[in-house]
C-alpha cells in the first residue's frame, strides 16, 4: 500500500476500470477489484466544473469561479508511485496532474438497511478537507461541451466498450473493441487502444523487473 492520494471524477470512479489501469490484466495476484489495496470514499471538489469532452466518453474538469461550481467524485487512498505512473499514462497529455483540496462526504446509515447510503433527507454533508492530486484538463476549452458528464449514464451506455466483467475486454468482444477504438470514444484508453496497449507494455516491463530482483 502506498501513500499517494488522488481524486477521480470520471471513468476512474469505476472500480473495475481503476483496477485494470493500476494492476494490468486480470491475474492471480489481483483477480478482482475487491482485492485492491486502494480505499475509496465519496468527496466533493469545489471551484471546478465537470464537462463532457466532444466526441469522447470521458469527462474533463476545469477551474471555475462560480459560487455553485463543484464536482462530486471519488477520494482514493493507498496508491503507490507506480500506480500514479500508470494513471499518468492512462490520462495522457490532455490532462495535468495538480494538487487540489477536496472535502470528504459524510454518509449516513438508514435504519435497518445494513448498507451505507446518502443521508435520509436527501442532503449530503461535507466533512474534513484533504489535499489530493487530480487530473485537470489542459487541452483547450473549445473541446468541451457545456453539458455535465454523468457517471450513471456512462455506466449504462458506455462501460461495456471500456471493460468487461472479466476486467480485460469489453462485453461485446474484441471485435467490438476494435470498432470502438477506430471511433476512439475512449481516446485510446480501452484495452485495445493505444493508451491501453502502452499500459500493458508498462505492466509487463514492471513484471520483468520484479522477476529479476
Largest β sheet strand count, sense and barrel closure: 5 strands, antiparallel
Mean pLDDT, rounded to whole units? 78
Give the helices and strands as they follow along the chain: EHEEEEHEEEEHHHH
Number of helices: 6
Please name the fourth-level CATH homologous superfamily.
Gamma-glutamyl cyclotransferase-like
Helix and strand content put the structural class at alpha+beta
The total of beta strands comes to: 9
Strand order of the largest sheet: 1-5-2-6-9
What is the name of the CATH architecture? Answer: Roll
Radius of gyration: 18 Å
Span of the ends, CA to CA: 20 Å
The proportion of residues forming helix, as a percent range, comes to 25-40%
Structural description of this entry:
This is Putative gamma-glutamylcyclotransferase. GO terms for molecular function: transferase activity. Pfam families: GGACT. Residues 112-131 are annotated as: Disordered. With 213 residues, the protein is an alpha+beta fold. It has one domain: Hypothetical upf0131 protein ytfp (Roll). Helix content is 28%, strand content 29%. The protein contains six helices and nine strands, in the order E-H-E-E-E-E-H-E-E-E-E-H-H-H-H. The chain has helices at residues 15-23, 81-91, 151-157, 159-162, 174-183, 194-211; strands at 4-8, 39-46, 48-52, 59-63, 70-79, 95-106, 108-109, 116-117, 125-137. A five-stranded antiparallel beta sheet has the order 1-5-2-6-9. Helix 2 (81-91) packs antiparallel against helix 6 (194-211).
Strand and helix map with partners:
Blueprint: E1 4-8, H1 15-23, E2 39-46, E3 48-52, E4 59-63, E5 70-79, H2 81-91, E6 95-106, E7 108-109, E8 116-117, E9 125-137, H3 151-157, H4 159-162, H5 174-183, H6 194-211
Antiparallel strand pairs: 1-5, 2-5, 2-6, 3-4, 6-9, 7-8
Helix pairs in contact: 2-6
Amino acid at each position: 500500500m502506498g501513500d499517494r492520494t488522488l481524486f477521480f471524477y470520471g471513468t476512474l470512479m469505476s472500480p473495475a476500470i481503476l483496477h485494470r489501469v493500476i494492476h494490468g490484466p486480470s491475474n492471480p495476484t489481483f483477480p478482482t477489484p475487491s482485492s485492491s489495496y486502494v480505499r475509496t470514499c465519496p468527496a466533493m471538489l469545489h471551484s471546478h466544473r465537470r464537462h463532457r469532452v466532444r466526441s469522447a466518453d470521458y469527462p474533463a474538469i476545469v477551474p471555475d469561479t462560480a459560487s455553485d461550481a463543484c464536482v462530486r467524485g471519488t477520494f482514493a487512498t493507498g496508491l503507490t508511485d507506480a500506480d500514479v505512473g500508470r494513471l499518468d499514462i492512462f490520462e495522457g497529455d490532455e490532462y495535468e496532474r495538480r494538487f487540489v483540496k477536496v472535502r470528504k462526504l459524510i454518509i449516513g446509515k438508514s435504519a435497518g438497511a445494513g448498507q451505507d447510503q446518502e443521508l435520509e433527507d436527501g442532503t449530503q454533508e461535507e466533512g474534513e478537507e484533504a489535499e489530493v492530486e487530480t487530473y485537470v484538463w489542459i487541452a483547450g476549452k473549445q473541446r468541451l461541451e457545456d453539458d455535465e458528464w454523468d457517471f450513471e449514464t456512462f455506466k449504462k451506455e458506455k462501460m461495456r466498450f471500456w471493460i468487461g466483467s472479466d476486467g480485460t475486454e469489453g462485453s461485446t468482444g474484441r471485435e467490438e473493441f476494435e470498432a470502438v477504438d477506430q471511433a476512439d470514444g475512449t481516446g485510446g484508453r480501452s484495452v485495445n487502444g493505444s493508451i491501453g496497449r502502452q499500459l500493458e507494455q508498462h505492466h509487463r516491463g514492471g513484471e520483468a523487473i520484479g522477476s529479476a530482483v
